Amino acid sequence: MNNEDYKLKHKADVFREGLQSLLKKYNPTHYAVIVSNIINEVFVNRKHMGRYPIHFLMHSIQANCSYYNSNRNDILTEIKLQRILNHYRQYFDPVAEYFLTKDDGVEPFFVNMARQQLSLQWATVQIRWEDQYYFLIKVIIRKVKNISKIRLI
């Protein structure tokens, strides 16, 4: 590995550790419900997409399922959720940029995200959380397909 590879690996490790420390406090059964309600609100009122990027919210649900510590049970507030989203905003994701800048990139972006993230964290996520995550992905992809059929004037 060259020096650039070490820098990228270190940056990814710092991101993962920070994300883990932010998300391990919230019970996934509560976190997933709150965040999926926000995702639903974003689909209803698209002006919230800048404040609540759907791909960050979806990834945070899955990461929360993976990193949750059962000895902790904090309550998720708006300020705490914004801290989590700000953590995501600090890091550049070239794959996300590639898919989201294409005209038809939203659906392939979600499919790619599911393939990458679920395979990376398969061993650590409990099956009951994965089932809920797969269900959420299916619902969101269905909504994205419906939204992409609507033409904005």
Note the topology.
Layout (H helix, E strand, L loop, with lengths): L2 H21 L4 H17 L9 H14 L10 H12 L4 H7 L5 H15 L6 H23 L4
Describe the structure concisely for a colleague:
The protein is an all-alpha fold and 153 residues long.
What do you see in this structure?
- The chain has 153 residues and is an all-alpha fold.
- The chain has one domain.
- The protein is 71% helix and 0% strand.
- It is built from 7 helices and no strands.
- Helix 1 (3-23) packs across helix 3 (54-67) and helix 2 runs parallel beside helix 7.
- The model has no long low-confidence stretch (mean pLDDT 78).
What descriptive keywords fit this protein?
single chain, 153 residues, mainly alpha, 7 helices
The succession of helices and strands, N to C, reads HHHHHHH
Give a short account of the largest sheet. none
Structural class: mainly alpha
Percent in helix: over 70%
Determine the mean pLDDT. 78
- Estimated radius of gyration: 16 Å
β-sheet strand percentage: under 5%
Stretches with pLDDT under 50, minimum 5 residues: none
* Total count of helical runs of at least 4 residues: 7
Mass-distribution shape: globular
Q: How many distinct folded domains?
A: 1
Q: Count of DSSP E strands?
A: 0
